[in-house]
Amino acid sequence: MIKKVLIANRGEIAVRIIRACKELNIKTVAIFSEADSDALHVRLADEAYCIGPTASSESYLNFTNIMSVATLTQVDAIHPGYGFLSENAAFAEICAECGITFIGPTPDAITQMGTKDIARTTMQKAGVPTVPGSDGIIESVEEGISIAEEIGYPVIIKATAGGGGKGIRVARDQAELQKGISITQKEAKLNFGNSGVYLEKYIEDFRHVEIQVLADKYGNVIHLGERDCTIQRRLQKLVEETPSPAINEEKRREMGEAAVQAALAVNYVGAGTIEFIYDHRNGNFYFMEMNTRIQVEHPVTEMVTGIDLIKEQILVASGEKLSYTQEEVTFKGWAIECRINAENPDRNFMPSPGKIGMYLPPGGFGVRVDSAVFPGYVIPPYYDSMIAKLITYGDTREEAIAKMKRALSEFVIEGIDTTIPFHLRLFNHEVFVHGDFNTKFLEDYPLKQEDDA
């Protein structure tokens, strides 16, 4: 059993991992940049070490410094959280070479699923539905034009090493395609060090539905149902819920089985998420990508299944078998998560870093807050702008929405702008409440300040 874990992350996910470790009687080591010296994860861990300056490249992405601390503190394992090094196969490889357990999948699985054109081919071989498109990376603009004419416009250009909404561009005709391929290749080279791009048919009216999977080292794979992440802004998720208002029991089983097959195809170990494009008009679904890590939105799955995903990650990494069989996984109630960010929704979501004055999170039955914030904490401008994840749970979607509206109205954060007003507008919008919408919701309904009247 793992006895000591280094958390190679910051913010709320670092706090979440430390809490899970404490409940498993595992010692924790926090790392922090100079900008995070006063952070909550630093205070909560058994040990904490500064690993570099403010810039992520010199701290949270610094292999050498992180491994030096891991060796110095004699940890058994490293939990990467999400973001930063969580999907970095080279880092997972270095952990293995140093005799330290990487709490996540193998480097090979990360590589297979992280390189999107390879992942697409792997899924096709495993019988998982994929969107019509190119066979791997396109070699030239001319090849791209030929494929687009074959599958029909609009098409979507994707960087094979992309992620987080970057390296994606839609082309509706040949002129846009020619320009789009060139721009996306340059953007991909700059952001990911890999200029490779591939094409897919662009499905315009769809929902973003993902399936949570868990796998152990003994070939056991289960799914924990879906999360609906359709409410997005510029391909960034804002609200997540489970179950999906658009999925029935039969479709859940079908998508769950496809996700399990996807995980088995790469000998997956740990917690992972298979993201699907779900055509809610005809019920078809297509593989989008796999996230080989814990997701930001994992709490909603925990709320409806009663399964602690972080603990399961740690237990699986320790060599334990999964604590549950597929038959033992049950779904009860409805959970919704709002990402509360330090941004001004009325100024095009402009970041709002700064010092928090009063901080009073909501509470009560069916309300959960995952955060690393406290009164006097300074939201730094150098990292993501998340303040908290607000999760509500009810027997029905209506009850979960009612709890969320109540919790949002209770949430007090002074000193900075937040996205709370945006979320209140969303949860009072009749189309959202009705549940029939697609990923273009915010294009169709911008939710401006004047809607508050």
Automatic annotation (TrEMBL):
Recorded catalytic activity of this chain's protein: N(6)-biotinyl-L-lysyl-[protein] + hydrogencarbonate + ATP = N(6)-carboxybiotinyl-L-lysyl-[protein] + ADP + phosphate + H(+)
Pfam families: Biotin_carb_C, Biotin_carb_N, CPSase_L_D2
E.C. code: 6.3.4.14
Domain (Biotin carboxylation) ranges: 1-447
PROSITE patterns hit by this protein: ATP_GRASP (PS50975), BC (PS50979), CPSASE_1 (PS00866), CPSASE_2 (PS00867)
Top-level taxon in the UniProt lineage: Bacteria
Residue ranges annotated for the ATP-grasp domain, each copy included: 120-318
Keywords tagged on the record: ATP-binding, Biotin, Fatty acid biosynthesis, Fatty acid metabolism, Ligase, Lipid biosynthesis, Lipid metabolism, Magnesium, Metal-binding, Nucleotide-binding
Pathway participation: Lipid metabolism; malonyl-CoA biosynthesis; malonyl-CoA from acetyl-CoA: step 1/1
UniProt GO MF annotations: ATP binding; biotin carboxylase activity; metal ion binding
GO BP: fatty acid biosynthetic process; malonyl-CoA biosynthetic process
Gene3D superfamilies: ATP-grasp fold, B domain
Quaternary structure note: Acetyl-CoA carboxylase is a heterohexamer of biotin carboxyl carrier protein, biotin carboxylase and the two subunits of carboxyl transferase in a 2:2 complex.
Record function comment: This protein is a component of the acetyl coenzyme A carboxylase complex; first, biotin carboxylase catalyzes the carboxylation of the carrier protein and then the transcarboxylase transfers the carboxyl group to form malonyl-CoA.
Listed name of the protein: Biotin carboxylase
Native source species: Evansella caseinilytica
